[in-house]
Amino acid sequence: MLVKFLIRWLVSSLGLWVAALLLSSHISIGNSLWTVVAAGFILAVLNILLKPLFVLLSLPALILTLGLFTIIINGFLVYLASWLYTPLHITNFWAAVFAGMVIGLVNYIVTALLQE
Questions:
Q1: Count of alpha carbons within 13 angstroms of residue 17, beta-carbon side
Q2: Using CA atoms, how far apart are residues 57 and 36, in angstroms rounded to an integer?
């Protein structure tokens, strides 16, 4: 379980870094590797603690949108991480949604590479 959390932490950090590169005008994570790692840690903890609750509470919206509402949930968690950890600055909610999509894509790629 610890290894799974460490991988999630690494993937969250990598995804935030990629999202900050793609949306440099909307996402700022500073120049320090420590900032990226700390923001990734906070995001990984939020995903473990809050995401199952949000998925359960938004089940009707998830069913209605065939699961696409998870993009909004991921964006909300990224935005919440930026609110909790001020060195991670995201200008608006839609930038956080895009960052959540990038993190999800990075997670998918890393998971696919680790399974081979």
A1: 18
A2: 30
Q: What is the DSSP letter of 53?
A: H
Query: Of 8, 3, 2, whose CA–CA distance to 111 is shortest?
Result: 8
Q: How far is CA 63 from CA 2, 9, 59, in A?
A: 31, 28, 6
- Contact call for residues 38 and 30 (beta carbons, < 8 A): no
Tokens of 76: 């909300």
pTM for this prediction: 0.92
Q: Say how far apart CA 75 and CA 69 lie, in whole Å.
A: 10
Tokens found for residue 16: 């935030």
What is the C-alpha to C-alpha distance for residues 78 and 76, in angstroms, rounded to an integer? 5
Q: Six-digit token pair at 72?
A: 């909004």
What are the residues facing 90 on neighbouring strands? 27
Place of tokens 């590169």: 21
Q: How many CB atoms lie within 10 A of CB 59?
A: 11
Query: Which pLDDT tens digit goes with each residue over 13-63?
Result: 999 999 999 998 999 988 888 999 999 999 999 999 999 999 999 999 999
